């Protein structure tokens, strides 16, 4: 029970931490900042289920990026200015295997550009957590509401009239933090193509 509570606490803490970074940045500016960029991502994903083969889904992500430079300035981490942003990402996915179902949810991310995001080719990493509802019943998960942790590696290419294209790989772990057994988790690999528009 104690271990389960610690796991739940860690998941919620990571989500709250990302939210605090954004809110703190807004308070430093004495206003809630408008999004800096909108992105659409879509592609394919596949995970493995015990006894049922592959878990295949086709997600659509709507990613909203926020500038939190004031936060980095306040804690004296100027290297992160303009390189690290907070992304809010609601999504929906069509599941085609093992049965036709849907997923929907939302994640919070820190996205860190390894080079200046103004360059024509800008690699980045992203790390985040969120919540997901899946209509699919699986042997792995006793619950349909679950947590998701995601690690992503991507590259942003080109800028034409404030627009760009991104190619991204993500590893996603889905589990319910042992709220209810079974909780074996579902690991998935995603390949996504995105289009962004900066404002």
- Beta strand %: over 45%
Helix amount: 10-25%
Order of helix and strand elements from N to C terminus: HEEHEEEEEE
Shape: globular
Count up the domains.
Answer: 1
How many beta strands in the DSSP annotation?
8
Largest sheet geometry: 8 strands, antiparallel, barrel
Looking at the overall shape, the CATH architecture is Beta Barrel
Stretches where pLDDT falls below 50 for ≥5 residues?
Answer: 1-9
Our Rg estimate from Cα atoms comes to 18 Å
Q: What is the overall number of helices?
A: 2
Gap between N and C termini, in Å? 47 Å
- The CATH class is Mainly Beta
What attributes characterize this protein structure?
Porin; disordered N terminus; alpha+beta; 199 residues; 2 helices; 8-stranded antiparallel barrel
Topology, element by element:
Blueprint: H1 2-28, E1 37-49, E2 53-67, H2 69-74, E3 84-97, E4 101-113, E5 121-134, E6 145-160, E7 163-175, E8 186-198
Antiparallel strand pairs: 1-2, 1-8, 2-3, 3-4, 4-5, 5-6, 6-7, 7-8
Sum this structure up briefly.
This protein has one domain: Beta Barrel (Porin), CATH 2.40.160.
Descriptive report:
This protein is α+β, with helices and mostly antiparallel strands and 199 residues long. It has a single domain (2-198), classed as Porin (Beta Barrel). It is built from two helices and eight strands, in the order H-E-E-H-E-E-E-E-E-E. It is globular and about 50 Å long.
